[in-house]
User: Fold these one by one.
Assistant:
Number 1:
Amino acid sequence: MIYSSTVHSIFPTKLFSPTNLLTFLQPKKTFSHIFQECSIHRKLGPAKQAHANMITSGFTPTIFVTNCLIQMYVTSSCLDYAHKVFDHLTHKDVVSWNGMITGYANVGRMCVAVSLFDAMPERDVVSFNSIMSGFLRNGKAHESVAIFVQMGRNSQGSTVSCRDFTSFAIALKACSAIQDCLLGAQMHGLCFELGFNHDVVTGSALVDMYGKCKFFDDALRLFHELRYRNSVSWSAIIAGCVQNEEFKHGLKLFVDMQRLGIDATQSAYASILRTCGQFPLPILGRQIHAHVAKRNFSSDTIVGTAMLDMYLKNGNVEDAGMVFRSLPIRSVQSWNAMVVGLVRNKRCSESMKLVQKMNNAGVSLDAVSLSAGFSACAGREMYLEGLQIHAIATKKALDSDISVANAGLDMYGKCGSLIGARRIFDSMTRRDVVSFNAVITALEQNEEYEETLNVFDQMISCDGMFPDVFTFGTVLKACAALSTPDRGLRVHDRIIKSGLGQNSFIGIALVDMYSKCGLRESARKIHDRNISHYQTSTSSSLSTTIPVLSWNALISGYSSLNHSEESQSLFSQMLASGILPDNFTYASIIDTCADLSTISLGKQLHGQILKQKLEGDSFISSSLIDMYSKCGGDSRSNMDDARTVFRTMRQRDLITFNALISGYAHHGQADSAIELLEAMRSDHGTPPPNHTSFLSVLRACAHIGRIETGLHYFESMLKDNGLRPRLEHYSCVVDLVGRIRGELGVQHALRIITTMPNDIKPDAVIWRSLLSACVCNKNSKVAELACRRVIELQPDDSAAYVMLSNIYAEKGEWDEVSRVRRVLKEKKVRKEPGCSWVEVRNQVHVFVVGDKAHPRWIDLYESLKLLVWEMKKQVYIDDSLDG
């Protein structure tokens, strides 16, 4: 055997100083040993020095030494150096070729690896295995299988036609990757024929393949048939349990593995940690963490990633952060697990900061990172940050990835940018159900209901595109918002044809749609079916919330149509059926108390809420504040109750603040409303005011005639808070300035309407406000203009005709009064009758002009006549005294 020169004969003495990287090498080592040890320990610098000294010393290396040098450069990812050494070889053996093929395959340069493979004068089984493994690692499983098939043929230039156990292991992993169990079963038969079925490597690969292809029973049977099981076999079956959601079985196998004294592998720990995150099992997860630390796997990147994912799925963000920070090497998967977990735990701001830190650290953001970044921006409506994520996705050419595009759609929709969402959707070359769901949801959430239904029609016209439960639920919400029962019926018809007619959650959406469209019988029929289906179902997967959600849909639907009495009746039926109300039920029924001014029922509900400790819910608290503010009686006492609810809240959101400001406005307490608004503007611990906040303050100012103050806050909206006034704000300001006495107020109000931005069109409400100002100031000329505009927008509005008639009557223009009354009669426009109600002994009595529906209507009219006679009598007495 030919030996190379020793280290002492060629290296300078100073090379072996105590601080030198080669101190781990022993004296009298050959070049081959140096290159091998540098390859093992990844010491590129000393290896380069050894290479340089080999050249300068004039030493002629053998093919073995050169192959060790090539392997060292390949291991260090210095392929340019490796290729130069390879090119200078006058005689290349199979090991030289295999080393280069492996190197290029490892870094994903499969084109070069394939060209080298094709150029090989002769190949051995390692050559085939290397190129197969390279294809598999680079996501080309089909090509890997093709090479496996080629191995079985006596192709030209190949010295072998057989496969070894490694060949089968790689090919079976390729079958797992493409989820082709039939091909895997054929390979299993070939293994049996060639006698590889009892080999532990091939057997473990077969267990892994059957597990990943969802044939868990076959995987388990094969595992138990193995004559010898090593840690890889156990890891494969435990991973199969997790992949097939056989979590308890996986835990049992892991315990059995420990009892047999078999050391857990990286894969086994990762699988069992995923189980602890899936259930979730936080206590067991901590125990596994301790076991991992004891076995010195804490610094392993894959195990550490699985561990922090487990903690995040258990809601333990702090421990997950600790594990993440302790990882010596963080892979892209580690970063992604942390980013996704923070979004899942609603820590969207922290997640976005981590994405930015990831980008700044030079970690290459992939599709998962960018999708999670979009989700973080969507969770907190961080529009500008979302634009930055979109820019990064475009720069990395990942904006066309369907998962990234879908997440971007969701972000733009939640941030209210329908143009951005539509731009992504229209540019997508491939769309799936999630894509359509994202844009449909974005349109529905931004109240573009017609366009929502148009995109739905576009979806069902696409071949192979089938709406799912989420699609139908969103579309039904759009139908409910538009109050279009015809379109709702068509959607219901498609639901039945798609086989989802018995789905419980779609059933709830149908109840909501029919009730809000006024089809109460249909709503009640589907509601009864939902309850019956729940009561007779034996499925454990059916949610226990189905009954209460169905009742909620029915109650809120009636309430939205101002059928508050029926809503309260339904609430009583719900309680009688034994269904416990939830937060949404209480919020809905409290709203009906506000509509009917049934303060006593509202207080009973408040007591029940306190008893069930639900007062911390912001929607319930906001509804209580609104109810106390709107109910009649002692307004000061009720507002005190509203303030008490507000003060006792642990967390106050924007809805709560707006509810109290609206209450102050309702009672004309402008100073209190302004004080609360100013607190929102100055205190960083409170949510900043929005359009609703300013609208309530403007109404409060109009209520008590604080004209200058109201105009100040109207101008302040855009100037100080960046809030562009909407139509409802202009309506309030028209009502406000219309209270100025004389011609000035009317002209000022008219000027505001005519100078509004072009994209804000006056509606009937704003013209009616102007008409009211004209009535107060007896301006018949502008009143005629306002009346015409109201009638153009709402031809059946009798109030406009009546107000115009009153103006002419005040001015004594009786001919004009007759003309207006005649037009009113010709157009058959009827004045809506007045309605009032009163609560006596916990029963609400409703009265309508000319109504005879009340059971004691005769007694009521007799009492009314008596009251009118007493009033006339009192007027006569007063006139007599004055005379």
Number 2:
Amino acid sequence: MPEILAKEHIDLALRLREDEGLIRALTMLKTRMAEVHSSKKLKGLQIVEAEEKAMFDVWRLCGRNISTLMPWFFPSFPKKAPMSMMDRPFNMVLLYLLPYHAFVLRGSRQIGKTISIGTRQRTHAHIFHGLSSMYIAPHSEPLNTYCRKYVDIDRAFRFPSPVGDKFKQLKQYKEYPNGSKVEMVRVQTSATPVRGKTYDEVIMDECQLFDPGLETEVLEVLSDSKIKSMLYAGTSTTTETLLEHRYQEGTQGVWHVLLDDGKTVNCGNADEVMPYIGEYCMVDPKSGRPINPLRGFYKYENPAGFDQNIISVHIPQIINPDKVNSVSEWNGIYKTMIRDKKKMIQEKLGIPVAEANQEVSESDLKRICVIPDGPDERKKKCREGYYRLVVSGFDWGGSDYNPLLKTKISSTCHAVIGVSPDDKVHILHLRRHAGKDYKTIMNQIVADHLAHAGGAMASDFGGGQQYHALLRTHPNVNASRHVIFDYSAPESAICAPSKTSSLENMLMLNRTESITALYLAIVMDNPMLLAPSWDEMEDYLRDFLNMNRVLIDKERGHKGRRFVYHRHPSRTDDVVHALNFAYSLLRLCVQQLLIEDPAARTMIRNAVYGGNPASMRSFNPFAKALSEYATGYDE
């Protein structure tokens, strides 16, 4: 079993101030390290081995933390003096390395996060032979900033990096003689940059911009490691980010400033701390006396996080010594508080203030729930040919279980939709499948599809080639009328045949554009998508409230920034994708111009269109109606 970091050991700064035994032992060890380094009796490998033994003793004594070693490794960085973590006691929690632990830093802007993470990564790579560490950022700007800063850190490190061709020293990839390696990558809309790699540690920076749907796939790089260490860092501007979710799961360590009377000020509570922010320093609002915000300690609001091995801390800008010790910098914080309270709370205090903007509201969803028929009546209408076209889509689930964080939020969802005589799209059936094997799920999906006299069906590629092969060999499934969608990037074509797969009817579907079209079908003045009663559909349709738009980097050759959809890290979005696959298939069947290549478009349409009476009726009115509102996505 992996060890659990004890609560009494996490606040190393407090121990270094109050534990005299620890202070004496550390002084002796540091003296020993200095003697070894300057010894004339030891030579070569003997010096290295003696130094490493002393370093490991210090590391163990400090509860697996390297904070007290930083002055040794960085004698003149980041300023012309040895690096002292006692100047930034709140950052010491970042310098642990423990197996099966996740550390979460929810901080404000400008708290020295990049330097702390970079020095941590470089020092661990030196101390622990063979350690592999991966730094991940969702955007190019923070990645490039980190790469530049890491170069400065490498140069300032006591032991220079190797020179020559034997060990790679590239901008985003570093190798060291002891077998350790460090890599920096960008993961934005796909986990492709990390797929197939193996690492001991993953550092997710600017985590508030990271797509929660990619987390499980990214953490697969830790599957073969015996260390499995994770670090999440960033600034939570809203409550629906992956960073904020991990912070809430963890210990929720909040810095409390100690006052002269023994009371404390909670820096994680905006209403409590802002009255203490004076024009030029932190002051007691009653007495007017200055207060040192660095004199404090962490208080953990969720101690259960220790049992889960998730250590989360909050670091506001007002305890950064670069701000505290500069009158002009502190005055900038004060002016922000006076002019823009929301910006003050988000960027200076690092506290999320609101939920992210949603594409649809609950009232939008209730507005489309107007179909009076019950489930049996809808099935009867399908069998009698009431609907011009009936198709279904399903989103494979069950792959989002994270054994490190013990979370699972995905399930397979199946949706059946049909075109009514008045050219509206009716949601006819929705069902979630959880806690079942794939064969049972497959049989139920096929049964529901046939019960509604469905024609073509679509699914995502997430189930993998093996499960699609099983589905297509089902006695009641026509393989030529099964379309497989694999999501593609925002800058790609809306829909196109896959160039890399040999599977029949395998298409690449632009995730952002297709979901946007689905949302438009709900929010337009005269909704295209309609559903049965809210009482029946509420649990399913609420999945639409679990997604929000996030701006991403522009790609080469494309103008302006683009956006993608992120789901809430603790809520499901399976219904959205199941309906999106069904709706996109429907648009293909009615010959909307989703695929630019006419030959490919005709081939796909001929393959999936046709079959039973319910799907052989006229589709032209629906095609005309759809074209009128979706022109912007099809031209």
